[in-house]
Amino acid sequence: MNAEPRLVEVRKNVLKQNDVTARALRGRFRDAGVLAVSLVSSPGSGKTAFLEKTLTLLYSRYRVAALVGDLATENDAARLARSQVPVKQIVTGTVCHLDAAMVQHALEGWDLNTLDILFIENVGNLVCPSSYDLGEDLRLVLLSVTEGEDKPLKYPTIFNSADVAVITKIDLAAAVEFDEAAAKRNIQAVRPGMEVFKTSAKTGEGMAEYLEFIERRRVHSRAAAAV
Amino acid sequence: MHELSIAMSIVEMAQEEAERRGGVQVQIVHLRLGRLSGVVKEALLSSYEMACASTLLEGSQLMIEEVPVEVFCPRCEAPRLVRSIQWFRCPECDTPTSTVIRGKELEVVALEIKE
User: Fold this and answer.
1) What is the mean pLDDT of residues A76-102?
2) What is the DSSP string of B44-109?
3) B60: Cβ–Cβ under 8 A, 6 or more apart, which residues?
4) What domains can you pick out in chain B, each with its CATH number?
5) Is A187 domain-assigned?
6) Which of A40, A160, A191 to mutate to test the interface with B (most CBs of B within 10 A)?
């Protein structure tokens, strides 16, 4: 018997299970021609108001639905249900992020073929969600003007993992002396080339440009599904 | 704080590997951790001890090798290490790039076992 410690190679991705589930979800979205869009931000950045506005504006033209993650309450789903689209709450309990299995579970019983665009609102958190692929086609990171321009530098990992940045509450920009140029510079520092939209869910400012972008991406998803 | 659930996954993986090898004792788990993985080294280390309690891994050690962020510079046509994760530019020619080659790793690479 050999008493000396021995090194054995393993080489296993710790989040392999999540990645496998996310890949399966991505395949299902693609096959059904659904554009899956996730939203991440810190708590209080206006994620739910932004999503509510998005759903209301898309509702007449597209079959949209939303999954919303929250630690403890179902308030967000109740709010979003006012937009009349199918909404399901994912209460994560003590878990600070959504993972692919939670999304998969929440989608049970939903026929993806009846949808055009699915929004997935993550738990308000700029740290943990960055590690978990949810199978989404697009990840939006939201930054409200009240949070300060340096958020991207403080949380570079989540900004780097996102595809698009959305500046929210732009109607408050003057009141809080928001430095838009600095915010954009910081976003580009951590994720060069990232598209940035500025919006106000309250006044509707900038929503059209952002929705045009979403619609363009949806056309791409449809084209990919048809191949 | 998702480090605890990550630590629990690591312990589970190591335990499965140990059982597969006939219940060997794991002394050290070697992990590669990218600077862009979204996981904080210090938090993971303290979570690891908690995750090991009352398992086959109790008393084992987690050794973390941090992986720097490497990007591909389109102008130099070469891989480059970024100076900081707040500055995604080529350190040689200052060209912005977001093509990440490595730095997102969260991988158990090896175990030190005693038979």
Assistant:
1) 87
2) HHHHHHHHHTTSTTTT-EEEEEEE--EEEETTTTEEEE-SBTTB-B-TTT--B---EEES--EEEE
3) B14, B26, B27, B28, B29, B52
4) 3-67+102-114 (3.30.2320.50)
5) yes
6) A160
Distances (CA, A) of A29 to A137, A173, B28, B55: 9, 37, 41, 39
**Is A4 a domain residue?**
no
pLDDT, tens only, A185-220: 999 999 999 999 999 999 999 999 999 999 999 998
Consecutive H or E run containing A10: strand A6-13
Point out the residue among B31, B85, B109 whose CB comes nearest to the CB of A9: B109
Q: What CATH number corresponds to the domain at position A207?
A: 3.40.50.300
Q: Which residues of chain A have a CB within 8 Å of the CB of B114?
A: 3-6
**What range defines the domain where residue A78 resides?**
22-226
A68 in any annotated domain: yes
- Pair of tokens at residue A60: 């007449």
Is A76 within a domain? yes
User: Could you give the ipTM of this predicted complex?
Assistant: 0.89
Q: Structurally, how many domains does chain A consist of?
A: 1
Cβ–Cβ of A160/B98 closer than 8 Å? yes
What average pLDDT score do residues A34-39 get? 97
Stretch B49-62: mean pLDDT: 94
CA A54 and chain centroid, separation: 13
